[in-house]
Specification:
527 residues, lipopolysaccharide transport protein A fold, 40-stranded antiparallel sheet, 1 helix
Length: 527
Amino acid sequence: MQTSKGLFLFHLFCILQIFSDAQVVVYGDSTKTDSSKFIKILAADKFRRVKQDSTGNLNLLIGHVQLKQENTLFYCDSAVQNMLTNTIEAFNNIHIKDGDTINVYSQYLIYRGNTKIADLNGKVKLTDGKATLTSESLQYDVNAKIGTYLNNGKLVNKQTTLTSKEGYYYADTKEVYFQNNVKVTDPEFIMLTDTLLYNINSEVASFIAPTTIYDKKSTIRTRAGFYDMKKEVGSFSKRPVIKDSTQTIIADNIDYDKKSGEGLAHGNILYKDSSNGISVISGEAVFNKEKKTVKAYQFPLTLIKQDGDSLYVASDTLYSGVLHTDTSKENKNDTLRFLSAYHHVKIYGDSLQGITDSLYYSSIDSIFRFYRDPAIWAKESQITGDTIFLSTKNKKADSVFVLENAFSINRTKEGMFNQLKGNNMIGAFIDGEIEFLRAKGNSESLYYLQDDKDSSYMGLNYALADAIGMKFKNKEIKRISWVNAVRGITYPMDKIPADKKILKNFKWLEAERPKSLSSLISTPIKK
């Protein structure tokens, strides 16, 4: 390139000595060739032809130079044309007009007419009428309509700016392929990646390398997918992560609408709310990041964690959202969560287990509400009823309220069953163990009497009353009380009738009790 510049300056000196000041217009010389690829001279202020032996004749052009090859026009301040090699070397205020839409500008150009390759340097700018690509050096293939830069470039399309170390512009498809240190800057977000395909018309960015998208509220990390900058929707694959100050969504694939916050996640999903210590894993989920809701399908499993203890909830379907509290108060908190679980619900924790058809949990009061055929277990005690409200503290049972057909069973270490039933029932727990139970309305009790000295069993007591209370200690009944209309009977241990050992509607559901975390998961779920 330096040799060419030197040759040009030498000839330019000669020209200035012999050129007149008159403007000249020269039209293409086709005496040597009739090829359509020959670069024709349309105009120049000054012109001279220098004859050479083996290297080809040179046309030296100065001032308002215009050249043409087929449908491509070239403008510059000065140029040297080699007629043998069909090349031009142009200087200052260069403008290539390729067809109706492509315009390229620079300060220096070498153009090879036979291959239609233009090498441009110095303040290079390529525009198609919509977007503008700038770089210090660019190679433009007129035939293929491809522009290439290898040493930093920038594309501006409306309010979006894309920069990278390397880039390939495809005029026909209006796409730019960016590589190495790619950065997309938009008023709404910043995107960082190593490889990116961007369509100027659709404003869709496609990526096949690790990519991070930042906005004012959240971060998206993915390794493949696309993002529509115009519609603000994206589809991400290969374990993408969407994260904000309190929420994290991870899945095999995520379709996401940034404007509405709605998304659809597929495959090995993890949804996490760190502010409430709640996590959900499932096979499929619909979520709204802005409203902080998630509806999970395909064996959802929920983790409720606090103070080092955890409860797991499994079901067919899970829905979780935010409970909006009174935001007018100081220390407002509008991120308290609720959970609604539907069908085949199971709960497992170290000190608490349960089953039911449907369940509702609120982090405002930490109460589990069991509906339709519920049963809960705490250590060796089982409680059933039509509806159960179980209040927890530090994720351990704290108190219980049973509505209709309340039934409590406490299994002794010898395998016998103390029982209490009534229309309704209330109870309290200490460290996950029942401290007392009180049944009210058509109450019945059946419990085994023990000697205070050696705890040996002396008999079985059956009683009826309006209300019955049982006090427990170390999993055993220590005191029982009856209120109103009390009547009953006590059987010695060796004379207990076989049909008097259980109350009506007795159901010991130990076989259905979740005994481990693995028993909650119907199919394996990757973490």
